[in-house]
Amino acid sequence: MSEERSERSDGRIVKMEIDYSSTVDQRLPECEKMAKEGKLQEAIESLLSLEKQTRTASDMVSTSRILVAVVQMCYEAKDWDALNENIMLLTKRRSQLKQAVAKMVQECYKYVDAVTDLTIKLRLIDTLPLQVEYGHKQMRLCIAVKDYIRTQIISKKINTKFFQEEGTEELKLKYYNLMIQVDQHEGSYLSICKHYRAIYDTPCILEDSSKWQQALKSVVLYVILSPYDNEQSDLVHRISGDKKLEEIPKYKDLLKQFTTMELMRWASLVEDYGKELREGSPNSPATDVFSYTEEGEKRWKDLKNRVVEHNIRIMAKYYTRITMKRMANLLDLSVDESEEFLSSLVVNKTIYAKVDRLAGIINFQRPKDPNDLLNDWSHKLNSLMSLVNKTTHLIAKEEMIHNLQ
To answer: Measured between alpha carbons, how far is 387 from 259 in angstroms, rounded to an integer?
Structure first.
């Protein structure tokens, strides 16, 4: 008996309009006979024309039978090109029924194990939605042998939109945990932050308070560790608006430090947040971001660097000029270290600065473009003339009133 309701590829739930089971019962044996006689293409074309009718009528059971029959005939004929082509064709057909595709893919899974030729097997795997799980295995192997470049190449073959489908949460978590390992090696903190954010937004994580808290803590720490740019700044402010940060107040306060236009002292930050970030507390376990390992120590040093860079940006905002000694004093660094950080920010175009090393003075004021200067002068002149005109008008008005009296 055909099922009444099914789901199309665009997410619509549809009801069966016509039952084609009797037609399929008659057509399948005929097409199977044609395929065995070497007329595979004719048999497939006959089934595809019927498939269009069953799909349009939302007859899921009949459509499933046709899809499975097509791949079976290709497999039995050992026509691997036809098998791959028809898998792609049938999965991409307009308003295809999801359950029918699922049954066809399940049938194809059997062929992966049965095929002995490695080249054919890899082509079949690449064609099937099984590619995601297989991609995970490839990524794990590449990470194990520290081949991170190949891992990134493989990761790009996996379309992350696939993880929006129902029942893909486990695969999604596996994928993003593998990507975190890759970007840990690359030192790409902003990418790691995005991966943890994807994990945090997963329904099964949000259902468990301990899991989402750990994920959100990692999101906060890695966005802070990311070098400042427009994307990082935008992400910081978006994360700051998450109401769940109220439940991890220390991390919320730390994030606020980096959005407040005030100088931070590294010693005070360590005193206020050091233990919480590195060791945790009974109610708030620490992440492994700042663990006492080689990688954890490196990230701790990078956090100090982000504090210094934040302070230099604040100085550039409020000062037009400052001496090197005064800046070094505010940063709790030597003059040489301060100059190194300043140079790095200037090279990255995060701030504008020019250093007079002989005088020991830093100038944060950006020289104006001649056109801007001219426009500014013109605007001020117009304002002045308007003011003079208004004043003249008021004086004339007062004189007229005085003469009338």
So the answer is: 40
Here the tokens at position 78 are 């050992």
Distance CA 82, CA 99 (A): 22
Q: In percent, how much of the chain has pLDDT > 70?
A: 92
Predicted pLDDT of residue 128: 62
- Residues contacting 166, CB < 8 A, separation 6+: none
pLDDT mean across residues, the chain:
86
The vertex-299 CA angle with 344 and 142, nearest 5°, equals 105
- Pick from 62, 60, 72, 51: which is nearest to 9 by CA? 60
Cα(356)–Cα(197) distance, integer angstroms: 44
Nearest Cα residue to 260 out of 332, 314, 189, 319:
314
Question: Exposure string (b/e) for 62-74, b if CB count within 10 Å is 16 or more?
Answer: bbbbbbbbbbbbb
Distance between CA 231 and CA 222 in Å, rounded?
13
C-alpha closest to that of 5 among 53, 61, 48, 44? 61
DSSP three-state, residue 285: strand
CA distance 125 to 17: 35
Q: How far apart are CA 76 and CA 61, in angstroms?
A: 22
Q: Positive or negative, the Cα torsion across 245, 251, 254, 255?
A: negative
| Beta-bridge partner residues of 354 | 363
Per residue in 181-211, pLDDT (tens digit) is 999 998 899 999 999 999 999 999 999 999 9
This prediction's pTM: 0.64
> Taking 70 as the threshold, does the pLDDT of residue 9 lie above it?
no
